[in-house]
Amino acid sequence: MKMRALALSLPLLGAYASATSILITDDDGWATAQIRQQFDVLNSTGYNVVLSAPAVNQSGKSSLSTTPKPLTEPCEFNTCPVGSPATGFNASNPRLNYVNGFPVDAAKYGLETLAPTFFPGGKPDFVVSGPNVGTNLGLVVLFSGTVGAACEAARSGVPAAAFSGASGSQVSYTTLDTDPDSAASRAARIYSDLTATFVRTLTDAAAARPGPFLPPGVIVNVNYAKIDACPSAESYRWVFSRLVWNIFETDVETCGSDHLPDESKVVGAGCYASVSVISASSKLDVNATLQGQVKDRLQGLQFACLD
Fold this sequence. Notes:
Layout: E1 21-25, H1 33-44, E2 48-54, E3 87-90, E4 93-99, H2 103-118, E5 126-133, H3 145-155, E6 160-165, H4 175-178, H5 183-208, E7 218-224, E8 237-241, H6 263-267, E9 272-279, H7 288-297
Parallel strand pairs: 1-2, 1-5, 2-4, 5-6, 6-7, 8-9
Antiparallel strand pairs: 3-4, 7-9
Helix pairs in contact: 1-5, 2-3
């Protein structure tokens, strides 16, 4: 496979990026347009990036785990042949890796095998899971492999977030070149730029106030609205949210209220990105204290209130 040239869609994120190691994973597979665009954007803006994702689409596998085995069918989009080993990499770029297992197994392989090879200190500073093709809203997170992979990282002591978008489709990364104006290619570019903004916000906060990117035991679940009326990353506004509306719970105060909007409402309201904090063990909403700690780290996103 031949890596394509990338025209930068984001400005340089700053010198701190070069010191930040990022592992990328997902549940859609290692060769989709969205994960490869995400790899390219983060890599080209200065982060130390490695990709470890399933050999084939493993959507909906939650936190299932198995022992990776040699392939009895080709990798997705015929990116590796039948009989390929259980784990492998792009011949022209060893930072692009597949794992013939579930999303959790791909995350584990990245954390336990790839990180000691590629990252100073032997582990990533942050794990980006996604952007997923399709949203992961509300209790759907309980079944999401994208969320499962992020939770695996957090349970292993590495800060992580899951990213998902309402637009896009399960297409090869080659579509980014062969059909750059397609909805799938545009979604890949927009969502990758948004995710890079999220990562930049965390790294900027860590540079200004040294400390962990996120509190232990949590992940951030981010969902992006459809791109139909949102032609660029700049069209979106970030909204702090929760998985499920709960009148009996008190949330961190936002927009004059101690009840956060649920993420489904946020994503359905227009050009918004919902940002929810959930437990890496239960995959449910966390308390107001933890919400507040994460919100404080992400102030650079300039959270908006729903119109």
